[in-house]
Design a protein that fits this description.
30% helix; alpha+beta; globular; Aminopeptidase; Ribosomal protein S18 acetylase RimI-like enzyme; 198 residues; disordered C terminus; eight-stranded mixed beta sheet
Length: 198
């Protein structure tokens, strides 16, 4: 574990004041991580228009912080299709494969369900094997379409660790954030599946 990782990150809603720290986190990603998340070059530092779309989407955005530093970002935004929310997340290099991405996706998914989403959309590079495994494992009933190097998965809206949406679980995931920050998890551990790089 990196010595700066003293405890689990805190997750909270994101906003414009997070622009500089999010830019710092994105700049610290490897080229491959940036490509898997954005499917294109984003610049270094990333353009302010991109950062604003990530922090203030047509849905909601969340950041995981350790001290003042942002170590993760997740969001959902309305996508084409009836009540379809696109989910996406990106995690700082030192915090990848430890469960933070799944935790953040769960929070974003719960918030999207609470807002009325009935389906989720994930757009994943065909080369991103860890994210493909994660989507297939956690949303096994998703349908998939291919467009060149991208795979688009559409799944019924439910939390990644629940067989169906349950109001009490959705409330637990979203209600805690109304009061501010929540721990990302009791214990983060190495994981085989990573965040969907959408």
């Amino acid at each position: 574990m990196n010595q700066t990782q003293t405890g689990p990150p805190l997750v909270r809603r994101a906003g414009e004041p997070d622009t500089d720290e999010l830019a710092r986190m994105l700049t610290g990603l490897t080229e491959l991580s940036r490509y898997f998340r954005f499917q294109t070059a984003i610049g270094s530092p990333p353009r302010s228009a991109l950062l604003l779309r990530m922090l203030c989407p047509a849905g909601a955005a969340f950041v995981a912080t350790r001290g003042p530093a942002i170590v993760g970002h997740a969001m959902w935004a309305w996508a084409p299709g009836e009540a379809t929310a696109e989910l996406a997340a990106v995690i700082a290099e030192d915090d990848q494969r430890r469960g933070l991405g799944i935790r953040m996706l769960s929070i974003a998914a719960a918030d999207a369900i609470a807002a009325g989403a009935t389906h989720f959309l994930f757009v994943v590079s065909a080369a991103n094997e860890r994210s493909l495994r994660m989507v297939r494992r956690r949303w096994p009933d998703a349908t998939v379409d291919r467009d060149g190097a991208l795979l688009s998965f559409v799944a019924p809206a439910r939390l990644p660790d629940q067989p169906e949406e349950r109001a009490d679980v959705v409330h637990e995931q979203t209600g805690c954030l109304e009061c501010g920050e929540v721990p990302a998890a009791g214990e983060l551990r190495p994981m085989d599946d990573s965040v969907p790089a959408v």
